[in-house]
Structure prediction request, 131 residues.
Amino acid sequence: MRKNSVKNTRINGEVQRVLAEIIRGGIKDPRIAPMTSVVAVEVAPDLKTCKAWISVLGDEKAQADTLAGLKSAEGYIRNQLARTINLRNTPQISFIMDQSIAYGVNMSKLIDEVVHSESVEDEMVESDENN
Prediction:
């Protein structure tokens, strides 16, 4: 099975949906933040391993705690995944913290600051020309 095949894409989407449901409703670990989302999932073509990118709304401590909680609950998550999705092999899941949302928010703030500072400079130049 190729990495970009229709079957692999369908499996990735299904695993992502089920992982999100398990994290949202199945895990009782208090370390896992309530605003945790599964951003993307990449299941290997041989169905042995799976990378799951997660995003956590909160500070770095909440992100680290959530990652630790998910790693400790990996066996339970894998068991629930095996019960829900009928695959030949249930993949070994490795959780990766996705920083793209935080990066995007930071870049948006920086762009807003630059635009604001340019508009202030333009106003200062206009007021100097009028005087």
Q: What stands out?
A: Residues 117 and 123 are 10 Å apart (CA to CA).
